Amino acid sequence: MAHSHSVSGKDSKSTFLKIPVKVWGLLFLIAAYTFLAYKLVTFNQYTEFLNHWRQMPLSQFWWLAVVFLFLPFNWLIESVKWKMMTKHVQNLSLKSSIKAVLAGISTGFFTPNRMGEMVGRVMFLNPENRKPGVTLSLVNSMTQNIIMTFCGIPTCIIFFSVTAGKMKFNLDLYLLIVGVFLTCMFLLYFFLPKLSKLLKNNRLGRKIKEFTDCLAAFSITELIQIMLISLFRYIVFCIQFSFMLRFFGVELTGWQMLIAIPTSYLFITFTPSFAFSEVAVRGSFAVLIIGAFSNQTVSIALAGMCIWIINFVIPMLVGSAFLVKNKA
């Protein structure tokens, strides 16, 4: 009996692994649209949003226009980074890289911290290159998290120093945890090529070599370039958020924005969430952090919601079209 059970388990595992990437992509896509519909139906701030929209002077709309102008620029930067990440595995065109990035937003929409992005991205790689593609997608996410942490820790320290007494929070413990994480991630990131070479010489390495061999080809210079692209994209995110706050008439000085926005992103980075629920996470942290400098709570929450719609929902809708059309 035990023997038949193990064979059955093996068969089910084999069947699981044989499911085509295209099928996984479509399943993720259906789930993403289901969750988006759920969020739209359960959203309870439509009245406040429409009231703000009607009262908005026309002169404010140029802030919104600039946020939209940054949208393609934002994802172009990410596509250039993905093209660079995959160049040692497969030489993607910029067009294919853009499609892969947008498809990844669709498949990552309902997974924790957008882990499902790898499914959409690897669909645009040749079948034999998809295992290294999974690893490269994880490293790609790591670079963005490192940048958000690296930029967020100093502003977080300044923020809690400035707002001491207004907010109660165990800052020392939080910064210790985040600081340890950042140090480990930095060391791991720049050690990846050497780690890949070391793994070849042991039993575990031989089992996962299809996933890790792709890392050995990266030079330190390339790793630094990829990190700088992540920094550039992060700056674009911050500018977009600051302009969206301006659009909703949130009155902050440039210095307050420079402190509050990176601090908000730091908290978002280290809060487990799904992309579809990030509107609530972003809104709550925006109100918590930015609200320390302004009592315009509704405007701050709406700014957080709108930046989520522009940067994630719109690309998700576009990416889903690429996902369906892809013949992988």
Secondary structure elements and pairings:
Blueprint: H1 2-18, H2 21-42, H3 46-55, H4 61-86, H5 94-107, H6 117-122, H7 130-162, H8 171-199, H9 203-212, H10 220-247, H11 254-269, H12 278-290, H13 297-325
Helix pairs in contact: 2-13, 4-5, 4-7, 4-10, 5-13, 7-8, 7-10, 7-11, 10-13, 11-12, 12-13
Describe this structure in words.
The chain has 13 helices and no strands. Residues 1-17 have low confidence and may be disordered. It has helices at 2-18, 21-42, 46-55, 61-86, 94-107, 117-122, 130-162, 171-199, 203-212, 220-247, 254-269, 278-290, 297-325. The protein has one domain. The radius of gyration is 21 Å and the shape is globular. Helices cover 77% and strands 0% of the residues. Helix 7 packs antiparallel against helix 8 and helix 7 crosses helix 11. 37% of the residues are buried. The longest helix is centred in the middle third of the chain and has 33 residues, at 130-162. By secondary structure, it is mainly alpha-helical.
